[in-house]
Write a structure and sequence with these properties.
HisF; histidine biosynthesis; cytoplasm; Aldolase_TIM; alpha/beta; 14 strands; 8-stranded parallel barrel; two-stranded antiparallel ribbon
Length: 248
């Protein structure tokens, strides 16, 4: 775990931060700037901010908020939500954000991955994959904040977005999101063993051991939400981050 990035994923909804369970039941957990200040003190490896309503509402990213967030953030920052064009990506990077995460638009307009990777560099382009198990079929990739089933196989999609030039995959299990009983390790292994780009495991972490389990299955980095913002069985809000010693 010494060289593995451990990344908090924070969900923006309006002007506040929220955390979900299986992409539903959103609970308010605080102000973005306050959270960033705490994570600065904890010397966090990297942060991911996802605006979970921008795409569904058909609006652009909140560039003013992004500028405020990036100016406070001492660690690399990735942003996703409402991104549809190269010009929007350019605006986001101009705000001080290092990476952008494409999700719904990456599926609807795959050439955006290739064009963005060519213009801004593949290391700047992350593609977020939200995966859910079907009742009768296997797992499928979902878009539109987990509401639209693309009927696409996660492995096939991962190979496609790698070929298009994505620099990383943010792999999120909808079924495990916010449950805190561990990642979908079979999914992590399936994706990481079929692509050569870094895979960030997300969805389900509730203990440091879960991070290690994901790395053992091939994840290049690990991400979580609830683990960093909730404390105890009653899910009291407490923003925290494990020490370097705990992560060894």
């Amino acid at each position: 775990m010494e060289n593995v990035r451990v990344i908090p994923v924070l969900l923006l909804k309006g002007m506040g931060l929220y955390k979900s369970i299986k992409f539903k039941d959103h609970k308010y957990v605080g102000d973005p700037i306050n959270a960033i200040k705490i994570f600065n003190e904890k010397e966090v490896d990297e942060l991911v901010f996802l605006d979970i309503t921008a795409t569904v509402e058909g609006r652009e990213p909140n560039y003013d908020m992004l500028t405020d967030i990036a100016s406070e953030c001492f660690m690399p920052l990735c942003y996703g939500g409402g991104i549809k064009s190269l010009s929007q990506i350019e605006k986001i990077l101009y705000c001080g954000v290092e990476k952008v995460s494409l999700n719904s638009q990456a599926f609807e307009n795959p050439k955006l991955i290739a064009e963005a990777s060519e213009k801004f560099g593949s290391s700047t382009i992350v593609v977020s994959m939200d995966v859910k198990k079907g009742f009768l079929s296997g797992q499928n990739v979902y878009t539109m904040a987990g509401t639209k089933n693309t009927k696409k196989s996660p492995v096939d999609y991962a190979k496609q977005i790698e070929d298009l030039g994505a620099g990383e995959i943010l792999l999120n299990s909808i079924d495990q999101d916010g449950v805190m009983n561990g990642y979908d390790l079979d999914l992590v292994h399936a994706i990481s063993s079929n692509v050569s780009i870094p895979v960030i495991a997300c969805g389900g972490a509730g203990a440091v051991q879960h991070f290690k389990d994901a790395v053992n299955k091939g994840a290049s980095a690990v991400a979580a939400g609830s683990f960093f913002v909730f404390q105890g069985k009653h899910r009291a809000v407490l923003i925290t981050y494990p020490s370097k010693k705990e992560l060894i």
